[in-house]
Design a protein that fits this description.
homotrimer; Alpha-Beta Plaits
C-alpha cells in the first residue's frame, strides 16, 4: 500500500463560473477533479432562502506546487469578484502516483 | 494570497432535520454553508439497502469559537436523538476574511 | 461534548463499481457511509468533456484499524484496475461512540 501526501482543495462557486474554474484547475496541473451541485449560502450577496442558491462544489487532489498555483490564481482572480469559497487541507492519497 | 485557519464541520443528517440544523448553524455564527443530498446508512436505525436512505450532507467553514458553539449544540441536541454524524477538521481558507 | 479521533476516507469511483466498494467498506468494519454522484475526470481513461463522466463519491468515518483494512483492500484490488481515487485524513468525530 502506497500513501502519498497531497493537498485536497475544495472550491464552492456559483454554477455560472464553475466550468471556468475547473478549466483553470486542469490548466494549472491538476489531473482530475470531481464536481457536484450544492445548495447553500455564502457570506456575500443576497441572503437566499435555505436551499435556494445553486452552487457547485469542486474538489481536486494535487501536489504541493500545483496546489500553490491553484490557490494563487483563485485568490487573485476569483475570490473577490465571484464570492468563491476555497479551502485546502493535507490528505494521504492512495495511488499509483499518476496524479501527484 | 491570504490563507487563514478555519474549521470545516461536516454534518450528515436525515433530510427531515437538516433545515433545522442549518438554521442553528447560521444562528450560532456561521456565515455560510453548503448542503446536498446523499444516500447512505449510519450506525443506528434499521439497516437500509444500499442507497436507500436519504440524508443531507451539510458543510460549513467557521472559526474556532463558532466551531465550538456548533459542536456543543449538535452534541447536546442532535447526535443522540437524530442519529446525526458530525466531524470536524482544520483547513486553510482562502478568503477576504468575511466568514472567519 | 465528546470528540474522538477518526479517519475520514473518501473514494471516488465509477458508478459501476461503487456498490461493490460500499459493500467491502461495510464488510471491513465501517458502520456507515454516505455516497452521492459527482461528475469529473481522473488521470486515467479517456479525457471526458467537462461534467460528462459520472462517478460516485463515497465517504466513511472509521477508526484507525478499520481505515487500514479499507485502504489495504482498495490499494490491492481497486486502485489500479478501476482507476479509483482514494484519500484519507484525520478528523475529530462528535459521537456517542457507536461507529468508531
Amino acid at each position: 500500500m502506497k500513501l502519498r501526501n497531497g493537498k485536497l482543495i475544495t472550491v464552492i462557486a456559483e454554477a455560472i463560473v464553475s466550468d471556468r474554474i475547473i478549466r483553470e484547475i486542469l490548466r494549472l496541473g491538476a489531473t482530475g477533479y470531481s464536481a457536484h451541485p450544492v445548495s447553500g449560502q455564502g457570506s456575500r450577496g443576497v441572503r437566499a432562502s435555505l436551499g435556494e442558491r445553486k452552487n457547485v462544489r469542486i474538489e481536486t487532489v494535487v501536489n504541493e506546487s500545483v496546489a500553490d498555483r491553484i490557490l494563487h490564481l483563485l485568490s487573485e482572480s476569483y475570490v473577490q469578484p465571484y464570492a468563491v469559497i476555497v479551502f485546502a487541507r493535507d490528505v494521504e492519497v492512495l495511488s499509483g502516483g499518476e496524479y501527484l
